[in-house]
């Protein structure tokens, strides 16, 4: 008997659409609160720790993040995709992921010295051995989280994310940094957050904990999961291979600057596209036989992503010196130029996960795998070649690889949804034009305030305020044929439920588009 039959039954009905809207509201709330929490925590930790501490932590995360993908072999993704999901599937997935996690953690402990030599950093060895604890619970947490995603229960996921970050990471990492633990404060924070996420996810999903290994159910899940897992392995190399080679070739401090720049560029992208990805994968999976409907939803998602990401990226390019020096301090000056370079490809980088949702929902993970292989090769090769010119050379090479991968993956998704390149580009134009208006205003303001010798923090505050005011102006100046009226009309019911200050600002922007 399918324990999630109700999900399948409503996937084509009205109830599914309402659940998707509700899920979107919770994901938006989660993204907003995460930014509110994580940005000041990141600034405080950057003030307390050295760039080399962040570089060493980033290098360890590259390794553990890669092997974490093997801790569930795509079983979490298979839970979302499986049409008729039973309790036996869930028990098998949890059991297999737990034993995989234990096995992989043991392997990391044994291989840590070899990995340290490969990274040319002996300090990495004890960190990897301690961090392997995270692998024991990562797979189970991923499966339990997938159960909640399948049910579009993002209310519980919201509380899990906020609680695990605040209690597990923010408090632990800050306390460790204040105690002088250096890089270990970051590692302990990561471990605490991961363990708490796993425990809360299992409890919230009411996951069946009785162990079971059954060949039939395991084969059904791995049939899809292994393909996704292979795709994720290669994708991870493409997304993190640059960090490994920057750490090896340019040292922990160089990786600290690069990772800070990359993470700042990715901050708005992560929260926007993570909300879309977790909602759209189960939603599009229910539309596998309705490609035109899927394509329409995809275009609206791309349009909203561009409207959010492009203005933010434009503001970050212009405000980068004052953002870095004003908030993080003079010792982080090396992150300014890489941040500006990487922000030029913020939109393609933000759209990539949306393209992946279409391909994955249509079960084209094997085809996408070949594109991911090319991207991974371009990132690794570009990083090695670009490192001869320092961090900026790496940033340029990675930006070029992202652009080429964006073009290739777009061609696949457009074929699947029967969309044209013209429609795809037009969907991104409103965001690009709004970003252009913001950039013109921000450049003029920055030049004026720098001539007046304002402080970095004062210039940054003025640019943030001017940028926020420029967005409604940019929307108002859009040509009538490019105004995102359909998108805004669909967003209106959800935005009316936001807290009063956010609701007033959002509704003001929507009215300018009419």
Structure description:
By secondary structure, the chain is mostly helical. It contains 19 helices and no strands. Helix 2 crosses helix 10 (215-285), helix 5 runs antiparallel to helix 6 and helix 5 (87-118) crosses helix 10. The radius of gyration is 22 Å and the shape is globular.
Question: Number of helical segments?
Answer: 19
Oligomer state equals single chain
Tell me the distance between the termini. Answer: 50 Å
Specify the structural class.
mainly alpha
β-strand number: 0
Mean pLDDT: 82
Overall radius of gyration: 22 Å
Order of helices and strands: HHHHHHHHHHHHHHHHHHH
List the helices and strands and how they pair.
Layout: H1 5-10, H2 14-48, H3 51-68, H4 75-81, H5 87-118, H6 124-131, H7 133-150, H8 154-178, H9 183-205, H10 215-285, H11 291-328, H12 336-343, H13 346-361, H14 365-386, H15 390-417, H16 421-451, H17 456-476, H18 485-495, H19 500-512
Question: Nutshell version of this structure?
Answer:
This protein is mainly α.
Please give a handful of descriptors for the protein shown:
single chain; 514 residues; mainly alpha; disordered N terminus
């Amino acid at each position: 008997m399918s324990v999630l039959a109700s999900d399948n039954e409503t996937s084509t009905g009205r109830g599914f659409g309402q659940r998707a809207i509700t899920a979107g509201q919770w994901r938006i709330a989660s993204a907003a609160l995460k930014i509110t929490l994580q940005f000041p925590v990141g600034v405080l930790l950057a003030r307390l720790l050295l760039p080399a501490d962040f570089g060493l932590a980033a290098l360890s995360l590259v390794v553990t993040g890669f092997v974490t993908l093997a801790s569930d072999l795509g079983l979490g993704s298979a839970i979302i995709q499986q049409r008729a999901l039973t309790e036996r599937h869930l028990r098998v997935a949890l059991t297999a992921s737990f034993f995989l996690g234990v096995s992989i953690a043991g392997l990391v402990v044994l291989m840590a010295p070899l990995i340290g030599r490969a990274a040319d950093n002996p300090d990495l060895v004890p960190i990897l051995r301690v961090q392997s604890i995270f692998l024991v619970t990562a797979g189970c947490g991923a499966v339990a989280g997938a159960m909640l995603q399948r049910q579009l229960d993002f209310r519980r996921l919201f509380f899990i994310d906020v609680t695990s970050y605040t209690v597990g990471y923010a408090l632990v990492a800050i306390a460790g940094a204040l105690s002088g633990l250096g890089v270990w404060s970051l590692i302990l924070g990561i471990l605490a957050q991961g363990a708490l996420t796993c425990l809360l996810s299992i409890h919230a999903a009411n996951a069946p904990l009785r162990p079971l290994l059954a060949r039939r159910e395991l084969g059904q899940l791995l049939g899809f999961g292994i393909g996704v897992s292979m795709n994720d392995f290669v994708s991870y190399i493409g997304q993190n291979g640059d960090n490994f080679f920057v750490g090896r070739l340019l040292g922990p401090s160089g990786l600290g600057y690069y990772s800070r720049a990359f993470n700042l560029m990715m901050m708005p992208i992560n929260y926007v596209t993570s909300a879309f990805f977790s909602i759209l994968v189960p939603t599009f999976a229910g539309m596998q036989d309705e490609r035109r409907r899927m394509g329409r939803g995809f275009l609206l998602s791309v349009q909203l992503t561009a409207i959010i990401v492009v203005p933010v990226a434009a503001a970050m390019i212009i405000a980068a010196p004052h953002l870095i020096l004003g908030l993080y301090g003079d010792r982080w000056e090396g992150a300014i130029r890489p941040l500006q370079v990487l922000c030029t490809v913020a939109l393609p980088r933000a759209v990539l996960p949306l393209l992946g949702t279409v391909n994955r929902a249509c079960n084209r993970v094997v085809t996408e795998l070949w594109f991911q292989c090319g991207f991974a090769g371009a990132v690794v090769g570009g990083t090695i070649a670009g490192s001869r010119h320092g961090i900026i050379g790496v940033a340029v090479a990675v930006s070029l690889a992202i652009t080429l991968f964006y073009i290739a993956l777009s061609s696949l998704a457009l074929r699947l949804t029967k969309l044209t390149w013209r429609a795809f580009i037009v969907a991104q134009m409103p965001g690009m034009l709004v970003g252009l208006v913001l950039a013109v205003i921000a450049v003029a303001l920055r030049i004026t305030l720098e001539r007046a010798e304002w402080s970095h923090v004062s210039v940054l505050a003025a640019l943030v305020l001017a940028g926020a005011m420029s967005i409604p102006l940019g929307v108002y100046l859009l040509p009538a044929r490019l105004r995102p009226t359909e998108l805004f009309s669909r967003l209106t019911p959800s935005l009316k439920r936001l807290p009063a200050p956010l609701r007033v600002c959002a509704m003001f922007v929507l009215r300018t588009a009419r």
